[in-house]
């Protein structure tokens, strides 16, 4: 190769290095801008974008007189060796404001139905055909608090509150917006929030119906830092739900019993029915 050819190769090499340098500089500049935007919101408890998206999702739920959904949920249990074990359940949920709730929760170990009609909460253990009925306050908000005090776990109940935004952000220390990402093929806004005892993330559908599609709660102060994950696979906010759907109809042969918390699936707050001592 003559000297002219070598000089051309050197120039081409220098040109490519220059392009790479410029390209890296542009990428770093973009990343720097994103970091600067995050840092500019550090003085706010919740960044304006995160607040706006979460508000729209919560307001949409609060203004929906009734809705139904299907979800898959996972709870992690940390065993004595420190290994995380996930236990999954399927959830069907109907809500009718201000005083109607219907839940079906199933797993390989159990199948339970929940009915709240503004007066009582009834829980049916479908596998054993046991049921229990407890008197409850006359609103979803107050019923949720009373059930929690009694050790009854109602998954996803926070979305049925009259003011979901206030309920979700009451103890939030910081909230951030992390852009758009897919959940089961649906493009969603990704938000993350921190509290004293938990961190949580939520994915809100991008579009005219800002539906919550996924959320994760991290119990950061518990041993092993277990997580709860909910993936909402179906929403229906248009069909009417009859009042009769929230009224318990006793199955043939069902036995009325007392109820206590159990530890199914590593969850110490799961409602279970237990026969009376005879």
Describe the fold and architecture.
The chain is built from 4 helices and 14 strands. The chain has 2 domains: 1-40; 48-274, outer membrane lipoprotein receptor (LolB), chain A, CATH 2.50.20. Helices cover 25% and strands 38% of the residues. The protein is of the alpha+beta class and 278 residues long. It has helices at 3-40, 48-62, 140-149, 164-169; strands at 66-78, 84-96, 100-106, 111-116, 120-125, 130-135, 174-183, 186-194, 199-205, 212-218, 227-236, 255-256, 258-262, 270-274. The termini are far apart.
Overview in brief:
The protein has 278 residues and is α+β, with helices and mostly antiparallel strands. The chain contains 4 helices and 14 strands. The protein has 2 domains: 1-40; 48-274, outer membrane lipoprotein receptor (LolB), chain A.
Largest sheet report: 12 strands, mixed
- Principal-axes shape call: globular
**CATH architecture grouping of the largest domain:** Clam
Tally of helical segments: 4
Name the features.
outer membrane lipoprotein receptor (LolB), chain A, 14 strands, 2 domains, two-stranded antiparallel sheet, alpha+beta
């Amino acid at each position: 190769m003559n000297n002219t050819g070598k000089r051309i190769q050197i120039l081409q090499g220098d040109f490519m290095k220059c392009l790479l340098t410029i390209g890296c500089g542009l990428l770093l500049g973009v990343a720097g801008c994103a970091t600067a935007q995050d840092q500019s919101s550090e003085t706010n408890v919740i960044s304006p974008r995160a607040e706006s998206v979460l508000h729209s999702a919560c307001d949409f739920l609060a203004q929906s007189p009734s809705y139904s959904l299907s979800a898959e949920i996972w709870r992690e249990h940390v065993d004595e060796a420190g290994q995380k074990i996930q236990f999954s359940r399927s959830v069907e949920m109907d809500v009718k404001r201000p005083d109607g709730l219907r839940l079906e929760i199933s797993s390989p170990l159990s199948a339970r139905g929940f009915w709240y009609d503004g007066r009582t909460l009834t829980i049916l253990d479908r596998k054993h055909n046991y049921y229990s009925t407890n008197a409850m306050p006359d609103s979803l908000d107050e019923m949720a608090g009373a059930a929690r005090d009694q050790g009854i776990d109602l998954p996803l109940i926070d979305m049925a509150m009259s003011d979901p935004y206030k309920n979700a952000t009451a103890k939030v220390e910081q909230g951030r917006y992390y852009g758009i990402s897919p959940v089961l093929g649906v493009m969603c806004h990704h938000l993350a929030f921190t509290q004293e005892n938990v961190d949580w993330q939520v994915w809100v559908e991008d579009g005219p119906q800002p539906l919550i599609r996924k959320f994760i709660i991290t119990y950061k102060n518990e041993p092993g830092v277990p997580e709860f994950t909910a993936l909402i696979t179906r929403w229906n906010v248009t069909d009417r739900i009859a009042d009769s759907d929230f009224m318990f109809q006793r199955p043939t042969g069902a036995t009325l019993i007392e109820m206590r918390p159990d530890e199914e699936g590593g969850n110490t707050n799961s409602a279970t029915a237990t026969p009376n001592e005879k």
